Amino acid sequence: MARNRFREIMRFLRFDQKSNRLARLHAHMSYVWDTFIENCQKYYKPGPYISIDEQLFPTKARCRFMQFMGSKPDKYGQKFWLAVDKESKYTVNGFPYLGKDDQRPINQRLGDHVVMKLMQPYLNKGRNVTCDNFFTSLALAETLETKRTSIVGTVNRARRETGDEVMTARRKC
Predict the structure, then answer these.
(1) What's the number of CA atoms in the CB half-sphere (13 Å) around residue 159?
(2) Going by DSSP bridges, is the β-strand pair 49-58/128-131 parallel, antiparallel, or unpaired?
(3) Whose CA is closest to 18, among 9, 28, 29, 8?
(4) What does the CA dihedral 74, 75, 77, 80 come to, rounded to 10 degrees?
(5) Dmax of the chain from CA atoms?
(6) Are the C-beta atoms of residues 86 and 130 closer than 8 Å to each other?
(7) Strand 128-131 vs strand 150-153: parallel, antiparallel, or unpaired?
(8) Closest to 49 (Cα-Cα) out of 150, 169, 163, 138
C-alpha cells in the first residue's frame, strides 16, 4: 500500500463518535480495549494466583488522562490497572485509569476499588490475589475473605488501620 493511501485511510479511521467523546474519556479506543479484555476472559481461564498492579503504556499522544510516573523507564503514558495470571503472565482483566472515578464510593480507597473491580469475574472461586502496598489493606482483606478469595501483599506501615504489632514488628528473615 502506498504511503499516501495509508495516511488517507488513517486520517478517516475512527473508533468512536465525536458526539459522546466528552462523556466517555477513553472512547477513542474503548471498543478495541473492551473487546480485547472480553476475549482474554472468554478464551483463557487463569490459575489460582492472580497478580494486580499498574502498567504505564508509553505514548506521546495528548489526552486528558496522561500520567507521569517518575519511577518508570518511560515517564509519560496512559496508566492501566491490570490483573495478570501468575504462571503465564497473561492479562485476565484490566481497565484504564481516567482520573477520579464517580462509581467509587467515597469511603472506599482507590486501591480497594481497583482490586474489587479487577477481581469481579474471579471472586468466590478460591483464588489468591497478590499485590503491592498501594492495594493491600485490612478492609480489602476482610472483604475478599467474605468472597472466598485470599490476598498476599506488602503492608504499608504508615496506614492508620495498621495495628501496633505491625508498627513495632521487625523483619524476621
Answers:
(1) 16
(2) parallel
(3) 28
(4) 90
(5) 68
(6) yes
(7) parallel
(8) 150
Give the Cα separation of 148 and 66 in Å (integer): 36
Of the pLDDT bands very low, low, confident and very high (cuts 50, 70, 90), residue 130 is: very high
**Choice among 35-39, 71-75, 92-96, 133-137 with the minimum mean pLDDT:** 71-75
85 by DSSP, 3-state: which? strand
Single pTM value for the model? 0.76
Position with higher pLDDT, 3 vs 166: 3
Question: Which phi and psi (to 5°) does residue 143 adopt?
Answer: -65, -45
Q: What distance in Å separates the CA atoms of residue 39 and residue 43, rounded to the nearest whole number? A: 6
Q: Which of 101, 62, 92 is nearest to 78 (CA)?
A: 62
Nearest to 50 by CA among 5, 18, 72, 83: 83
Q: What is the pLDDT of residues 23-37, one digit of tens each?
A: 566 666 777 888 889
Q: What dihedral angle (degrees, nearest 10) is formed by the CA atoms of 163, 103, 80, 38?
A: 120
CA distance 71 to 31: 30
Q: Would you identify the CATH topology of the domain 15-168? A: Nucleotidyltransferase; domain 5 (3.30.420)
Domain coordinates in residue numbering, the chain = 15-168
